[in-house]
Amino acid sequence: MVRNKKIKVLLSKVGLDGHDRGVKVIASLLKEAGMEVIYLGMYQTEQNIVKAAIDEDVDVIGVSYLSGEHLVFTPKIVEEMKKNDLDDVLLIAGGTFPPEDIPAMEKMGIDKVFRAGSLTEPIADYIKNNIKKGKE
Amino acid sequence: MKRKIDIDQMVERLLSGDRRAAARLITMVEDEAKGHREVMKRIYPHTGECSILGITGSGGAGKSTLTDHLIREFRKQGKMVGVAVVDPSSPFSGGALLGDRIRLQSHFLDDGVFIRSLASRGYLGGLSKAVYDVIRIMEAMGADIVIVETLGTGQDEIDVIHVCHTCLLVLTPGMGDDIQAMKAGIMEIADIIVLNKADLDGAERSLRHLRGALAMACTEEGTWVPKVIPTVSVANKPGKIQGLSELASAIAEHEQYLKDSGAIDKVNFERVEQELGLIFKDELQKLIFKGLKGTGKKRKYIKSIIDRKNDPYSVVEEVLNVYLNPGK
Amino acid sequence: MDQVNQKKQVETLEGSWEDYIKAYYEKPASFKSWSGYDLKEIYTPRDRSAEEYEKDIADAGTYPFTRGIHANMFRGRLWTKREVVGIGSPADTHERLEYLAHQGGSGLNTIADVTYEMGLDADHPRAVDEVGLTGVNITSIRDMETLTRDIPLDKVSWSVITASTAASVSMAQYVAVAKDRGYDPAVLRGSIQNDPIHFRYCGFRPACPLDLSIKLGSDVMEFCTKKMPKWYYTTVNMYDLREQGITAPQEVAFGFGIAMCYIDELIRRGLDIDEFAPRFTFYVSCHIDIFEEVAKIRAARRMWARLMKEKYGARDPRSMQFRFAVHTAGCSLIPQQPLNNIVRISYEALAAVLGGVQSLHCCSYDEPMCLPTEKGHLQALRTQQILAYETGVTNVVDPLGGSYYVESLTDKMEEESLKIMKQVEDIGGMEDAIRTEWLDAQFESEAVKRQKELDSGEKLVVGVNVFTTEQEKSTPLGVQRVSSASAKQQVQEVRELKRTRNMNKLKIAIARLRDDAGERKNVIPAMIEATKAFGTTGELLGTVREVFGYPYDPMEILESPFQ
Q1: Enclosing H/E stretch for C274
Q2: Which of A82, C48, C254, C371 could disulfide-link to C480, CB 3.0 to 4.6 Å?
Q3: What ipTM was estimated for this complex?
Q4: Higher pLDDT, C62 or A37
Q5: Do B1 and A2 touch (CB under 8 A)?
């Protein structure tokens, strides 16, 4: 029996993009939804993200993209996750992208994309319902 | 990665320095998952040597920047460093924003540094019960020194003084912290007081205040007089850092003092006593409430108290009687 | 049988018409302004305490300028229709600039990409993946030459949108090219955003440490004041602050606070307020609550006039004029049902014009998805043109002046802004507010508030929490892609330049820059010389950074090649 279980979330920005209002708001609101959230900060590389995800043993990685870099960095992150055996960690993305790119991002390995203007509840619910709690 | 807990494998991997095993084990301990006690029992004999450094202070004092620089100092000494950074859980949602890792960017890719963010999960002292085991896990993985960084309110049974060998309190000039700290008696707890942002106005005066207050308070021969170390630990100006090597020396000095004077034994005794007390309390509470719940008695007891047919003391005596004298 | 069917039919009809009938009687749920202020049902002459028109309102062009900085406003000159452009390589950006200019735009406006604002050359390891994605990177004088080719710099008005400490390099690059083409800097017209203090809040903290921001920002301001009388040397950017989620009064209060940091520094350097203040400008947001935005602008004008006169002792009326450009609020736009954004942008542009703006940028409707497509950009320009030529809002100065509501709301905006400015003063002033991260805390808590307003339905946004539809599969007017070929070519050219330039000449110029920075002189002249010697953005900025104790490279990867 597992008691006291908390969902751990790692949020991060990648590359040089400095729009962090959204990711910080999500961090705050996921905390209010009962999750333990680590915001890694700006200018992260895929190595930083994956290493932190391992050391912090997170259930979810959330990446924030607001400068058109989503198709450049997603494959790098997914590749690094695969290399390190993190396929049971949920990968979600938020920010600004054309809807045309969403199928591509999902194909690359993102489990769910949340565009700017999303409400908080669907994000929290999605996480709660989809984390791979095979970590029993 | 396999998810089923294979205790032998876990222990073996941890002792060989596997970070992921350490990370998974920490989660198990935090979540009180099945099997974690077994693993901890096996690990226990491999622990007890590493130094445990506590860093506390209010927000804005620059704790995290200090931690960042200290990690660098210890790494220079060739030490492997474990870092447990603790943030408070929300009493309303149970969630937490673990916001210290972000300030330790320069160590992210250093394999000699293992950083773990923890939430206090209901404990008010700025630490969680899991921290004892987290420190052991980090040591078993290979850490020579573990830093525990927390807000440290001094208000709960689990506090940094019960967990660490050397306690640092970080203050800044002119924030009135020095006066407040003296009032709260926190000074009696810290082994080293760091006056950070010592380049600000009022630093000289704060320094004098603190040193004066400490000199007055500590009059016993042979005891450690808390040192006050001024530092300037600006985050992004490498050339502007001051006082860090003095701080590292003071920490080493305190460690040596603990060994030489034998005070380390007292510290260890109190640590174990404290932890034992916590585990007992926790276990007994769970046991009793579990038992009461199972029989439906918990609800009955509580109702009878509300109806003034009974009172809390009598209920506890009655229940304990049953547990301590079964069959009578 | 028939009866049963009939009854069923009536029941179904009633069910589906119920909502429709309800909608007819619908009442709005709240009567607060966007920033959260309660509003009366109606405002009357009884709402203005004393009709001190001359003192508090006055005609346009007269202190305190509440109604407008010029007496005749748009009758004298329409606002500048200046759409922001920045895409791919300097050549790509040049192409888009020409396109818009020939479609009826009246001002040029180029924006730096993230790599340039961060002070990185296009070939920096962290830059190569992102060059040109959201603006243009000008690494060397050659890039600036390409950007400005064939454009008569003495005749056009050019807005250079570089905000960070890299603005010092941008200014040097622009002047260097102008000089090479034979122009005296004194004839150049335009502006440079140059507001590094605020830019730390836009994700550029490594490039904009506070002391360096004040230093380099003021260097540009001082240089332009003395050498480029037709140039606006700063556009203190309240818009970006508003984008963090703060309210209208906070926008003005914090924007003014930052402006004062620069003003205090310039005065400390010995400049007279009237020497430079007439060229001081602002970048302001226009959000969706039309009346609140107009009131905010009118309040800002009155506050600025009083601030300049009473606090700084300005005597020249031009020093007291709140000169501003507007960028319609990007954060009010959403990706859901994107064409609706055109409507939002129109209302916001209306507010800007009713507020008496000097220069306007309308967002492109696809802002929440990507860089503006050519069509989107054109649509934004057309929005301005319809406003200017069809609606008649330009006919009369300050058309909302005298409205009991607007005058009341103007007073309210001023009152709230002043309260916040006092709060900042009480904690030690703007520099302290920034250093202690007090301002960060404000931004974070307001941003969370805004999201909660949406989550709870307290604020309604069509397409987000009301009248939602299925997620679109495509963007209505197509998606703007940035050619990676362009970026790759620019990176190649930068590498080639570094290989082939005369290093001796450059070393001498860099040494001079280092010396000037060390002696705390104005570094712009040395930057101009270094630019002419083919010094790059990263090299110029890095050299100054080192003198001030910062790592050469904001990303802390590269070392200075000029030890």
Answers
A1: helix C273-276
A2: C371
A3: 0.91
A4: A37
A5: no
Would the CB atoms of B240 and C551 count as touching at under 8 Å? no
Residue A2 pLDDT greater than 70, yes or no: no
Note whether C166 and C195 are within 8 A (CB): no
Low-confidence residues of chain B: pLDDT under 70: 1-5, 124-126, 152-158, 175-188, 217-219, 235-236, 238-239, 327-328
Structural domain of residue A45, as residue ranges? 8-118
- Reading the block at residue B226, the tokens are 């808390």
Q: Is residue A49 part of a domain?
A: yes
The secondary structure of A24-88, three-state, reads HHHHHHHHHCCCEEEECCCCECHHHHHHHHHHCCCCEEEEEECCCCHHHHHHHHHHHHHHCCCCC
Which strands form C157-161's sheet, in the order they lie side by side?
A: C108-111, C157-161, C189-192, C231-232
**Residue C257: pLDDT above 50?**
yes
Interchain proximity A18–C203, CB inside 8 Å: yes
**C-chain residues near B238 (CB < 8 A):** 549, 551
pTM equals: 0.88
Peptide bond into B326 cis (omega under 30): no
Contact A119 C461 (CB under 8 A): no
Looking at the 3D structure of chain A, how many domains does it have? 1
Closest approach of chain B CAs to the CA of C466, in angstroms?
Answer: 27
Task: List chain A residues with CB under 8 Å of B27.
Answer: 8, 57, 135
Q: Do A99 and C471 touch (CB under 8 A)?
A: yes
Query: CATH number of the domain that A50 lies in?
Result: 3.40.50.280
Q: Is A28 part of the contact surface with chain C (CB cutoff 8 Å)?
A: yes
Cβ–Cβ of C209/B238 closer than 8 Å?
no
- For residue B182, give Cα distances in angstroms to B57, B177, B185, B210: 13, 8, 5, 8
Residue-level pLDDT at B176:
62
Mean pLDDT, residues A59-86: 93
**Is A24 inside any structural domain?**
yes
Please indicate if any CB of chain A lies within 8 Å of the CB of C202. Answer: yes
Partner residue facing B60 (CB), from C206, C209, C436: C436
- Rounded alpha-carbon distances, angstroms, from residue B161 to B155, B274, B282: 11, 10, 20
State pLDDT tens for residues C190-201.
999 999 999 999
Taken in order of first residue, the domains within chain C and their CATH numbers are 43-77+235-264+280-364+395-469 (3.20.20.240), 78-232+483-563 (3.20.20.240)
**Interface subset of B 57-116, CB within 8 angstroms of A:** 89-90, 92-99, 101-102, 105, 108-109, 114-116
Helix, strand or coil, per DSSP, at residue C328:
strand
For residue A2, tell me if it sits in a domain: no
- 3 state SS of A133: coil
B236 CB near a chain C CB, below 8 Å? yes
pLDDT for C401-429, tens place per residue?
A: 989 999 999 999 999 999 999 999 999 99
- pLDDT for the residue numbered A136: 37
Q: A88 contacts in B (CB within 8 Å)?
A: 1, 3
CB-CB under 8 Å, C368 with A98: no
Task: For residue B60, list chain C residues with Cβ-Cβ distance below 8 A.
Answer: 436-437
Q: How many CB atoms lie within 10 A of CB C468?
A: 13
Distance from CA of A6 to the nearest CA of B (A): 7
B neighbours by CB contacts (3+ pairs under 8 Å):
A, C
Helices of type H across chain B:
7-15, 19-31, 36-43, 63-76, 131-141, 160-163, 177-184, 203-217, 244-261, 263-295, 297-306, 312-324
- C365 vs C371: CA distance, rounded Å: 10
| Local confidence band at C107 (pLDDT 50, 70, 90 cut-offs) | confident
Say if A90 falls within a structural domain: yes
Look at A21 and C443 and tell me if their CB atoms are within 8 Å: yes
Q: In the 8-state DSSP scheme, what is residue C129?
A: T
Average pLDDT of span C135-153: 94
